[in-house]
Amino acid sequence: MAAWLCPEAVAAPGERTRLHLGHPAQEIGSTGYCSAFTVRDARRFTPSASARTLPVVFLVNACSALPSLALALQDAGLAAIVAEDTCSDAHLVQCHGFALENGWSAHIRLGELLHTDGTVGIAANIAVARAPGGASDASLDAALALARDFAPPPTVRERPPAIAMPVPESDYAAMTYPPLEYRLLALFRLHTAIGYFFPYKDLLDGDWDALLPAFIPRFEAAADALEYNLAIAELLIATSDYRAGASSPA
Fold first, then answer.
1. What's the Cα-to-Cα distance from 131 to each of 140, 145, 198, rounded to whole Å?
2. Domain extents for the chain?
């Protein structure tokens, strides 16, 4: 079907994701690790010898799964998208899902569509509000009218910065003995950094994931800066890595 709808060769958007080469340092010059954008090449569609230039209109809503061909044709000015309320590109990018408690689950987007003009995401040529209770089918009427007189309005998509600029983090220099919420934040960040980026987890003596619930009471009960810093040092010792260390005025 794709070849019949393509009177000329068209390309779908690529996908831009984040690439992490280790855990980037918070201090300049500490390590060679870094984060970057990576772009997956776009898919190209080749026309059939019998393909004709016809008005093509895709009618979608928030639950619709648009094919990548629709975006390729839209970018080439050969198709239009009419959305009832809104449309989503979530099914076209990489996602990561994981189970939560009580039967809930979470799905996190890992990428975004990147068009050849540098814009991202998806935008309908025409968006029509859904009538309450199905009183009318204005979106279908708009799609049919556009098919009869094919002059799609231009789309407006977001143009993000070409280079990611992480927000500078505070070093909390005055917080030698942080409040409880910041002590727990430090624990979660340290545990997560080792959990996702430490290359020798399989060589540890115990289960790294089991240390998080074990250390939460330690960080909660730390009565002063010294006890807080000793708890951090003890967690680092569990990595059995001589390069891991902690220092503070305490």
1. 12, 18, 53
2. 2-148, 180-237
